[in-house]
TrEMBL record:
GO terms for biological process: sphingosine biosynthetic process. The lineage of its organism: Eukaryota, Viridiplantae, Streptophyta, Embryophyta, Tracheophyta. GO terms for molecular function: lipid kinase activity; phosphotransferase activity, alcohol group as acceptor. This is Sphingosine kinase 2-like isoform X6. It holds the Pfam family YegS_C. It comes from Dioscorea cayennensis subsp. rotundata (White Guinea yam). The gene is LOC120267044.
Length: 284
């Protein structure tokens, strides 16, 4: 769902400008700048940086598996979204997070020993891009001193957002800020199909977050431990960041021989936020 360029939409919308190429060009010409949070996504020695979003479950499935319908244009998302609602998938797994102030009510507390035990293993990674020791390695924070919470699956979707919009007409994170030092998380564990379809339709204005089926919170750090599909333990899921696959389980979509994953599906993937690390052109 990154085809609509969620970053451009978020920047233009924040200034009250309509989403268009000309407005985006004028924003660059004006030269106004703003700070932008950068998320470090890490699994063992594999590390990369995200500025838009990370998804697992329903949204990742739609984003990546709908590629075979690219000839339909942007309508492919609506079409495949409907197919996935009709044949709803759920995934086993676990998420852990450090909630921002005001969001401590979500999740079950983890004691310090359990939190440390579940940290990202040092040597667990797939065919990974290595970061040179002289390069940027992510924010210097002590995760051991933070109060972690945990939520167990199954999950329909887990969606982490750095900015409000993920596309021209999809706003999953209406409370997201460009440089607040937090990720906005949308979690849906269980939801009837008709109610879930209604949630999808409400994402054009962000009102889906009011649903009792949606867990919406801000986090300082996040760990995702993805599991297999409910009712089909031979099949895993897809983890998608900024529109690109970073990990996929067994039995997912077919890929070319040249395509490799950055990370391994199953072991925990950890996300931490570096507040205002990047600078981006903005309408104002």
């Amino acid at each position: 769902m990154c085809t609509g360029n969620g970053m451009a939409k978020s920047l233009l919308d924040s200034a009250g400008d309509s989403y268009s190429v000309s407005n985006a060009v004028f924003a660059i010409i004006r030269g106004h700048r703003r700070s932008l949070d950068v998320t470090t996504v890490q699994q063992g020695e594999a590390r990369f940086f995200s500025v838009l979003m990370l998804t697992w479950g329903f949204v990742a499935d739609v984003d990546i598996e709908s590629e075979k319908y690219r000839w339909m244009g942007s309508a492919r998302f609506d079409f495949y979204c409907f197919l996935r609602v009709v044949n709803m998938r759920k995934y086993h797994g676990n998420v852990q997070f450090v909630p921002a102030a005001g969001y401590e009510v979500y999740g079950e507390p983890l004691d310090r020993n359990e939190s440390c035990k579940d940290e990202v293993p040092e040597q667990t990674c797939g065919v990974a891009a290595r970061v040179q020791q002289c390069g940027y390695t992510g924010p210097k924070i002590s995760l051991e001193d933070l109060e972690w919470k945990s939520v167990n699956g199954p999950f329909i979707l887990v969606w982490l957002n750095n900015v409000p919009w993920s596309g021209e007409d999809v706003m999953p994170a209406p409370e997201a800020k460009f440089s607040d030092g937090f990720l906005d998380v949308v979690i849906v564990k269980d939801c009837p199909k008709t109610a879930f379809l209604s949630l999808m339709l409400k994402m054009n204005d962000g009102s889906h977050v009011k649903s009792r089926y949606v867990m919406y919170l801000k986090v300082k750090a996040f760990r995702l431990r993805p599991g297999q599909r409910v009712g089909n333990p031979d099949k895993g899921g897809i983890i998608d960041s900024d529109g690109e696959v970073i990990a996929r389980g067994e039995g997912t979509y077919e890929c070319s021989l040249q395509e490799t994953d950055l990370m391994t599906y199953g072991p925990p993937i950890q996300m931490t936020v570096d507040k205002g690390l990047a600078t981006i052109f903005s309408p104002k």
